[in-house]
From TrEMBL:
Residues 1-139 form the Tr-type G domain. It comes from the Eukaryota. It comes from Apocryptophagus sp. ex Ficus lepicarpa. GO terms for molecular function: GTP binding; GTPase activity; translation elongation factor activity. Keywords: Elongation factor, GTP-binding, Nucleotide-binding, Phosphoprotein, Protein biosynthesis. This is Elongation factor 1a. The keyword Transport does not apply.
Length: 139
């Protein structure tokens, strides 16, 4: 397995395209903070741009990390996670991904929640599940 960290900042789009064109799977990190998510999913937002680039460049497998769950209101909000999952699913379906084949994971990179082991701060998250042609997978 080869990992490539393609920065999300607009100044590094060329680097992102180079890295993404070599990828089999993309991990799309979406900020859960109020205002941050909305900016990313807006018409010219980076979340949309990165998902579209990944699909256009042939990356057929996608994982969505919903980051900054510690900064939701209230912190680690299941409702906010589900709201983001619904909106991102709607968008990625429009560009060609099958949302049922995409794993969504709520995380807090800053605090390490759900990064290596299940977080006690999100007991409502029972793991991810996807459905693909090959069958179901979960983790």
């Amino acid at each position: 397995v080869t990992f490539i960290d393609a920065p999300g900042h607009r100044d590094f789009i060329k680097n992102m395209i180079t890295g993404t064109s070599q990828a089999d799977c993309a991990v799309l990190i979406v900020a859960a903070g109020t205002g941050e998510f909305e900016a990313g999913i807006s018409k010219n937002g980076q979340t949309r741009e990165h998902a579209l680039l990944a699909f256009t460049l042939g990356v057929k497998q996608l994982i969505v990390g919903v980051n900054k769950m510690d900064s939701t209101e209230p912190p680690y909000s299941e409702n906010r996670f589900e709201e983001i999952k619904k909106e991102v699913s709607s968008y990625i379906k429009k560009i060609g991904y099958n949302p049922t084949a995409v794993a969504f994971v709520p995380i807090s990179g800053w605090h390490g929640d759900n990064m290596l082991e299940p977080s006690t701060k999100m007991p409502w998250f029972k793991g991810w599940m996807v459905e693909r042609k090959e069958g179901k997978a979960e983790g």
